Amino acid sequence: MKAAGLPVGVSTYIGTYGPNQATADEVEALPATYAPLFSIQPSTSKQAYGGRRLPPEQNALLDPRYDHPLPLVIPGEPLPARDHLKWGLELGRRFRDQMRTSGPGGAPIATTWQFDEILRQVVDGPNADAHKLYATGILAGLRLGRPQLGDAPEQGVVFAARATLVALPELPAPTGSPVAQLWDAIDRAAHSYVGEEYMNFDGDPALAAASNAAGQKQMLAAGPTRRKVGMKYVAGMTPGSSVNLEIWRNHGAKNLTVTLGALEDKRTAASGAPREQGGKLGLAVRPLSPEEQRQSNTKGGLVVERATGPAAEAGIQPGDVVLAANGATVNNADELKSAVEKSKGHIALLIQRGEARIFVPVRVG
Fold first, then answer.
1. H or E segment at 144?
2. Residue 334: helix, strand or coil by DSSP?
3. Is the pLDDT at 293 greater than 70, yes or no?
4. C-alpha distances in angstroms, 294 versus 7, 39, 55, 318, 348?
5. Which has the closest alpha carbon to 326: 228, 236, 245, 220?
6. In which region does residue 92 sit, left (phi positive, over 0), alpha (psi from -120 to 50) or beta (all else)?
7. Residue 295 confidence class, pLDDT cut points 50, 70, 90
8. What domains can you pick out in the chain, each with its CATH number?
9. Is the pLDDT of residue 131 over 50?
């Protein structure tokens, strides 16, 4: 992370399969966010598949029908023999049980999680609907935990197998159908939806992500829930491939995934400062006033007053603040124009919305 020169404010999630306090301590010291991974595979998540591990007084508050090892259709394969939605819900909740008690002195170890993964079985095969309901339940369980034991809703990172990235958004999703339920569960549970393209690349990571994110393109062209998930899309890149991140901070680095994601809709109030209209990105921007810089805790930057064309397609909204372009800070429209003119195909903008910051690749029109 230090070698990569990540800008302050970029969200970084690091986890282990199952909670691990030693790793959590190291991650929090980076600083980054520790997010343990739950695997849908029984061989990796033996504790959750094996049964509840709760004190008797807590277990007495829960449905006794699901207080035993998960009944599998085929041993070792992740699909219950029955009650697919409810067994998925129980499985996700069991992982939250682990998170709730794995910290020092039995305290919670983390406030977010990662799910590995939405399997290809949700789009084909005789049990596709059962797999959809199962994944729906797991995501709901991971998000909700057990409110009766004090859990609060928590969103996390959801990974999707490559075979699902185009095929799943193309499936018809009538209201109440298993596929509609799955998309709703993904939208509610995920703050980031990672497509496992894992393309090899050398050079501009934003361009590689935008060029290969077929799953995102399909979602943004689909119904409203899928479009919302598409705005949380993260293009997966191959760990260990040769990656040149000079675009970010004039440093080289390896093993880094550059991610996209959704930002909360918090807008910046307008002022009377002059604004720059349109351009190749479709942005109308103006410098932040000193008061706006103080309120948003930034130095410099350009507030977006209107977004059309490529910028709107990329999810940029009025009120967003453009902090940097291709790793270089921007304080006026001329600096943004210069960065655009030097870009080839796409430009990576560091956007602030409220207190969240994230890189957004935008096609240069």
1. helix 128-144
2. helix
3. yes
4. 19, 43, 49, 19, 25
5. 245
6. alpha
7. confident
8. 13-254 (no CATH), 283-363 (2.30.42.10)
9. yes
